[in-house]
């Protein structure tokens, strides 16, 4: 499997015949430094953790131009369908969907999920973390935007993720210290990748605090170069 980070919480997973974008926030993302056409080339699926604009991002445009299937919560699927989305597979927390060669499972995240229309929040379902499993590949757990919660231990026991994508930016998610604590307390990741930092001035500027807090732990900390695919 190859993982590419595009800044903030946007990732691409390439494995087998599949190319999966998670939370593809490109337009308006101050941390996005890649070529969008290259980033979306060959994309087969888009998986969304929740409805905030810095996670839904370019979903509608990408889905229209690539024909990718969007996988996310029922509420968010219906909202996007009302805006013209054609191919989608709705689900919710606790559910698993088979995407033909891999599965997506949605699990709890402690956050919120909405869009703002004329100054009014529009509810877009529960925020989630997503677990992606494919035969012969390491199980990936993108935590979405979340605080620490003790049921992370149950998620770890049930799904045994090997790659963790963990928010560290503070203010809207865990900070670096809490994210490191959650990683060490609940998971047996082979590799952990920090995200949700280095994009907006009001969240953490870099991953240094997380790297420092993880020192001495067996889990490998990967701080990827933006736009560069890394094998895991």
From TrEMBL:
Transmembrane segment boundaries: none
InterPro entries cross-referenced by the UniProt entry: Metallo-B-lactamas (IPR001279), RibonucZ/Hydroxyglut_hydro (IPR036866), UPF0173 (IPR022877), UPF0173_UPF0282_UlaG_hydrolase (IPR050114)
Sequence ranges assigned to domain Metallo-beta-lactamase in this UniProt record: 7-196
GO molecular function (one): hydrolase activity
The UniProt record lists the keyword Thylakoid: no
Keywords, alphabetical: Hydrolase
HAMAP family: UPF0173
NCBIfam families tied to this protein: PRK00685.1 (NF001911)
PANTHER family reported for this sequence: UPF0173 METAL-DEPENDENT HYDROLASE MJ1163, UPF0173 METAL-DEPENDENT HYDROLASE MJ1163-RELATED
The family this protein is said to belong to: Belongs to the UPF0173 family.
Protein name: UPF0173 metal-dependent hydrolase GJW-30_1_02794
Organism encoding this protein: Variibacter gotjawalensis
